[in-house]
Write a structure and sequence with these properties.
The structure is a homodimer. Chain A is built from eight helices and twelve strands. The two termini of chain A are about 30 Å apart. The first copy, chain A, is of the alpha/beta class and about 230 residues long. At the A-B interface, helix 4 and helix 5 of A face helix 4 and helix 5 of B. The structure holds a DNA duplex (30 and 30 nucleotides). Chains A, B: It holds the Pfam family Trans_reg_C. Chains A, B: It comes from Dasania phycosphaerae. Chains A, B: Keywords: DNA-binding, Phosphoprotein, Transcription, Transcription regulation, Two-component regulatory system.
Chain lengths: ~230, ~230
DNA sequence: GGGCTTGGTTAAGGCAGGGTTAATGGCGGG
DNA sequence: CCCGCCATTAACCCTGCCTTAACCAAGCCC
């Protein structure tokens, strides 16, 4: 399930968008100004953000800049009536990933939202990180030619980590990606990480699954050689 | 250096684009149809592709589909005169990441190319100050290539100081930024600053963490050399 | 010069977060 | 129907971080 955030002060337009996205199985939270958006972003996890520019309290460009300053590289789509070239360039300069001019066709919005929400986490069918290699279709993984024996959840967990590598991934993000909306209550994640580590540590290799204190986990390769 | 591929059969337009991108320090190879594009893709590595749709030999949509079939998730920007909604949706359905309608402003093309080329490269958000370098997303810090071992609070503290550098930051401001609303009663900040200094002073470097009497603290670099 | 303030240094204790392990229960396949 | 795999849970341990308090050192004002 795709989970996105809309920051827009025009309530009518906002409800229209939220409803339409809902039909396309896209869950869309709504904030009516930048500050509210910032709040939601701190407590929830979204795949991408739609951002109006003209807003009270905190405008879209400022919010966009703020997020980038903080090192958040979540995809952002600017959604505004300003159609001049300068405004577009201003949007991109602030760190946005796409720029859609009002009025727009809902279907185009959906297409662009899906691209930003999904493509970023990749559609690649084959992932390689140092000695580790994942085949998404086959749900198989290899470490230095020897196959790993991974349960479904373990595989997905590994996939999420490798896709984000070398970035750290927050527990929240992992939970969302692996279990979706029905997350287990307890320390299931800890146990899975533990089992995963056991397999990864087994053979000597250049993969390390580190815990980032207070945040989550990160998988990295410490190979000096060429990195794709 | 950004390295991209343009697949376009209109030679005039192609040279214009290649020349313009060159001015922006973007290296752009050119293929005049899908098959040639495929060849170039097999022998070279590109950050993204610009794709015309109407072409002899192999059209853009087919090429796009082919690449996705093969599991290549390289970003693709469709570049075409077909401006109807159906055509756009067709482009996105084929697996493209963006869709720009001709004629377009060169500057907008550059902006979109840069976004697509950078997005996937997983480039980290970094703060650099002299010999010190912070990777926000990875939550890691390096001082002259050697990694620092920082606790969550220490990292945040350092981040706040580096962000403000060379300005001094008041104690109040630091407390707010690091602990938020639930601040410790005692001299916790002093202790953290102390530990931070210990690590920063360890190796000879050009970083100094000074206390500004009565105000707070400031981190600065005393390098004479070029400063970014 | 003395006490007060401001900032630096150090060690100790409590606590939380993460790691490890084993037991339970569901689900699917044989 | 039974067996085995796998996810989840609870319980436990342990490390290392944060806080705290206490003690110094240096300057300032009276």
């Amino acid at each position: 399930m795709i989970n996105v955030l809309l920051v827009e002060d025009d309530i009518d337009l906002a409800t229209t968008i939220v409803d339409y996205l809902d039909l396309e199985s896209i869950n869309c939270d709504h904030a009516s100004n930048g500050l509210m958006g910032l709040n939601l972003l701190e407590s929830n996890h979204y795949q991408m953000i739609m951002l109006d520019i003209n807003m009270p309290k905190m405008d879209g460009l400022t919010l966009c800049n703020t997020l980038r300053e903080r090192g958040m590289d979540i995809p952002i789509l600017m959604l505004t009536a300003r159609d001049s070239l300068e405004h577009k360039l201003e949007g991109f300069a602030a760190g946005s990933d796409d720029y859609l001019v009002k009025p727009f066709a809902m279907k185009e919005l959906v297409a662009r939202v899906q691209v930003l929400a999904k493509r970023r986490s990749g559609e690649a069918k084959r992932l390689v990180l140092g000695d580790l290699s994942l085949d998404i279709n086959q749900r198989s993984a290899q470490l230095k030619q020897t196959p790993l024996k991974l349960s479904p959840i373990a595989f997905k967990l590994l996939e999420v980590l490798v896709r984000a590598s070398p970035q750290a991934v927050s527990r929240q993000h992992i939970m969302q990606a692996v279990w979706g909306d029905e997350q287990p209550d307890s320390n299931s994640l800890k146990v899975h990480i533990y089992h995963l580590r056991k397999q990864l540590d087994a053979a000597h290799n250049n993969i390390s699954l580190d815990t980032v204190s207070g945040i989550g986990f990160a998988i990295t390769t410490n190979s000096k050689g060429a990195q794709l």
